[in-house]
Amino acid sequence: MARHPAKRAHVLALLGAALLIVTFGTLAMQLGNEMARHGQMDRQSASADQILRSLDREVEQARICRFAWLATQDEKQRQCFHDALVQINVIRDDFPSVEQVQERLNRIRPASLDQLKTSLDMIATWQASDDDVVNRPETDATLSGIDEALISLSSVDTARREGRLADMLRNTSWQKRLDALGIIIGVLIMVTAGWILDRTSLAAARAEARSRNLALQLRAVLDSLAIGVAVFGTDGQLRHWNDRLGSILGLDEGFLRQGLSYGDLSAALVVDGQPLLEPFTHVERAFHRGESAPPVMVECKGVNGADLELCRTLFFASDDGLHAEDRRGFVLTANDITLRLRSERALGESQKLRAVGQLTAGIAHDFKNLLTVILGNIELATEAGQVSDGERRQHCLDAAAHAARRSEALTGQLLSFTRRDRPAADTVALADIFALTNGLLARVIGTRITVECGSARDIWHVQVNPAQLESALLNLAINARDAMPGGGQISISASNASYPTAVDLLTLPVEANRGLRVSSEPTPLPAGAWVRVDVIDNGCGMGPEVLQQLFEPFFTTKSDGEGTGLGMAMVVDFCQQAGGRVVVASSPGQGTCVSLWLPRALTEAVRVRPDYTPAPARTDLRALVVEDDPAIRDIVATILGLDGYRVTEAADGEAAFDLVVEAGNIYDLLVTDIQLPGPLDGFRLARLLRERLPELGIVCMSGDFTLDGPRPAAALPIVQLLPKPFRREGFLRTVAAAMQERISA
Fold it and tell me: In three state form, how does the secondary structure of 191-221 look?
């Protein structure tokens, strides 16, 4: 990593300071040597200077006192003058030492020194005489001469001292250049270091200001979020959080604090004895995995009853300037999704209502066709009975029964699609399915389109619901018909395929003109034995924008009112329930190939349900039939009457209860519909009558039941459930099971 500018500036400053210290140290040593050489001379000159200063002070005092005497004729001033002369004569005794120093310092004796000696000698004579020297005219001239001599000596001495100082500082030329160079370099280094430090300090200040601004912005962003956010370190200590976190999690005010441990927070978030947060050991294991550890997200109920979405995400900083404990951590977010779930549920209900409308409009056409077949064949069977044409009558009844079973299969398939129930599967031979479908398709598709069903004699059996397989082939054929408005050809074929390993179906070879493919499952097809059923047309084909949405429910390319968009979705749902998948290959203008991949059945034997054997006629058992639809009630009563039961009928639950009370609680069997008018539905009626008749056999009928659907919670364990529509054999088999349950109970 590159060295920081501040560190470089510190290094430069230290180098400059070291160079300056060495340079000035050298100069100091030179000055010390010079001062040592001149130290003795300076001490001698200092003593001489002291004498001259004392002499100058006394001469000045004498002149002041004389001028005062002349002005005031005060005897004190006169005495002051004479005292100054005495002190001057005392100083005169030390004058020889001054002469010696001056002669040593100066090659030539200064004239001022002789002038000073002459004036001092004259003053000595004044003190010896009795004349009044204070009034003499030459006194002032003598004293002024002493001042002039002292001034001259002082000037000469100062000049000599300056010379000595210059000699002391004077050195060789190369030493001077070296000193100057060292000083210049040192100063430049110091200036450079100062400039770098100044720039670095400015940059640091700006960076700190930006960091503070960014921190304030991030804080404002955190507080403005609709979700709660908490930042933890690797030690599990809370570092940062926003105000929304506590309210979302339902925590007390003041609970969140700096340094709060993850364990304490987890202990506070417990619902029904289960902690909402994952254990901290899981987080530590995620840290060991590094940046590859994915986020952990969970939806749960909070302590305040709100629906929460909790997410834990690790973070890893790459800045080496941070402390080790600051470079890693994890973020915990909490989102209140209560409103979102309510909106989704409301949207789901809205979509369900829309789907019901679309289903009603789309399925009406299919049911009308089936009803047309049923009613038409019944009418033809009636006419055939009148003309005693037994063969034609039987053919019409068989066609009507087949159409009725088709309507039953269509209803069951729609219930399976909307409820995601898994219908009963059977071992089916494709040869039989193709034989039944070929004739049906010829009537549905029309004469403009040719339908060819290949031979399926050597094709393995499959484990599917036969009605669903027929419906899937019919839906695919209808889609192919709509893709060929001008006519064409539909080919239905099957083939066996076995793969030792998993295979990606989108990599299998196809015709070159159908290069666009899509699969209902992105995962490879598992290894094993499979049966492939192809429905191929030479219609307009599909482009990529249609293929991307092909498997979505309610997606259709047809005009409004001409399709529900559920045909392909139901085909995909059928294959998924069977454990297979759907692959579509197409291209604009090149037709479409829809392939159904179905798993091979474990056994080739077709499972046949045992037929019901009617019991001998009985007249000792009484049955109560409760149904609000008179036609269905009449059919049920007729079947039970033919089976030997004494039947009583009721249209609602209250009337049925009254009949049981009036008969003295002697009924043996109750057959009731679930949806009855009035306050008593079928389950409530069964529960009430079971309390009065502990040995009562109970059969509950409903169009909402499926053979393999979940059992309603309101149904008693002994109640036998019968899905509508039903046939006589299935109905009597369920009644027999209810009576057997009655006997065993």
Answer: HHHHHHHHHHHHHHHHHHHHHHHHHHHHHHH
Strands 488-499 vs 528-537: parallel, antiparallel or unpaired = antiparallel
Is 416 within 8 Å of 706 (Cβ atoms)? yes
Structure tokens at 344: 């989704």
Strand runs labelled E in 37-95: none
**Distances from the Cα of 531 to the Cα of 205, 430, 456, 495, angstroms:** 74, 10, 11, 6
By the 8 A CB rule, do 277 and 262 touch? yes
Region 360-376: what's the mean pLDDT?
Answer: 66
Determine the length of the chain.
745
Query: HSE (CB half, 13 Å, CA atoms) of 345?
Result: 6
Q: How far apart are CA 230 and CA 260, in angstroms?
A: 11
Kindly state the tokens that stand for 77: 């001033």
Measured distance CA(463)–CA(122) in Å, rounded: 155
Per the structure block, which two tokens stand in for 326? Answer: 């600051």
pLDDT at 624 over 90: yes
Whether the pLDDT of residue 700 is over 90: the answer is yes
**pLDDT tens digit string along 253-296?**
888 888 899 989 988 888 888 888 889 988 888 888 877 778 88
* Distance, CA of 100 to CA of 93 (rounded, Å): 13
Structure tokens at 611: 């037929």
Query: Is the pLDDT assigned to residue 650 strictly greater than 90?
Result: yes
CA–CA gap between residue 55 and residue 608 (Å, rounded): 153
> Does 513 score more than 70 pLDDT?
yes
Is the peptide bond preceding residue 725 cis, with omega within 30 degrees of 0?
A: yes
Read off the pLDDT of residues 135-154 as tens digits, 9 standing for 90 and up.
777 777 777 777 777 777 76
As a whole number of angstroms, the distance between CA 43 and CA 680 comes to 136
Q: Indicate if the pLDDT at residue 731 is higher than 70.
A: yes
**pLDDT tens track for 153-206:** 766 666 565 555 555 555 455 556 666 776 787 777 777 777 777 777 777 778
Phi, psi (degrees; rounded to nearest 5) at 722: -125, 110
Instruction: Decide: 160 and 105 in contact? Cβ < 8 Å.
Output: yes
Q: How far apart are CA 197 and CA 10, in angstroms?
A: 8
- Give the pLDDT confidence score for residue 96 in this predicted structure: 76
Q: Residue 377: what residue type?
A: N
What average pLDDT does the structure give for the chain? 77
Q: 119: exposed, middle or buried (C-beta count within 10 Å: 0-12, 13-18, 19+)?
A: buried
Q: For residues 283 and 214, what is the distance between their CA atoms, to the nearest angstrom?
A: 29
Helix (H, G, I), strand (E, B) or coil at 639: helix
Question: Do residues 156 and 112 touch, judged by C-beta distance below 8 A?
Answer: yes
Structural contact between residues 569 and 551, judged by C-beta atoms closer than 8 angstroms: yes
pTM of the model: 0.39
Distance CA 102, CA 108 (A): 9
**Separation CA 661–CA 692 (nearest Å):** 9
Residue 626 contacts residue 672 (beta carbons within 8 Å): yes
List of residues 6+ apart from 45 with CB closer than 8 A: 101, 105, 157, 161
Q: What is the DSSP string of 404-434?
A: HHHHHHHHHHHHHHHHT--PPPEEE-HHHHH
Using H for helix, E for strand and C for coil, what is the string for 549-581? CCCCCCCCCCCCCCCCCCHHHHHHHHHHHHCCE
pLDDT digits (tens, 9 = 90+) for 429-466: 888 888 777 766 766 676 788 888 888 888 999 988 88
Structure tokens at 249: 């999690």
C-alpha–C-alpha distance, residues 526 and 598, integer Å:
12
Structure tokens at 438: 């070929």
